């Protein structure tokens, strides 16, 4: 019995003094276990890095995929006619609210018709790239707006604010697809 107590005391002392010995595991076995743990950690790290690289590559591949061209909705003749009628009614209402005279209304219609014709021709030009078309359309619209400012003077800004409010109202109702308002 004394022999068991002495061996237990020695076992505890060795465990405390040499913290390498845990529950009878030898120093060599502890080194092997530490190597296995390091190996497992390295494997986890490698798998994680590989997974991140694969996800990143897949994400970039998806971003570079060409975008599908938007599907154009076919609009019936009746719908087109209804949209034109609504646009014309909105335009007449905007003219009244802004206080445009018959002469100013006529100038507005001439300038916008000329710009719309140029934009339509630009869109139909197959020689131009999409970027060139957008640039040409922007230049045409900028020139149109400058002409409208000259022709309408102080009434230009209120008219454009009224037209913007009409567009927003048409977009918010969304009962039928609103035709783009030609300014």
Structural overview:
The mean pLDDT is 79. Helix content is 76%, strand content 0%. The protein has 183 residues and is mainly α. It has two domains: 2-61, no CATH class; 79-173.
Secondary-structure blueprint:
Layout: H1 2-17, H2 27-63, H3 77-98, H4 102-124, H5 130-152, H6 156-173
Helix pairs in contact: 3-6, 4-5
Determine the mean pLDDT: 79
Q: Termini distance?
A: 107 Å
Please give the count of helices.
Answer: 6
User: β content, as a range?
Assistant: under 5%
Poorly predicted regions are none
The largest sheet is:
none
Count of discrete structural domains: 2
Fraction of residues in helix:
over 70%
SSE ordering: HHHHHH
Number of strands: 0
Q: Characteristics of this structure?
A:
single chain; 183 residues; mainly alpha; 2 domains; 6 helices; 0% strand; rod-shaped
Quick structural gist:
This protein is mainly α and 183 residues long.
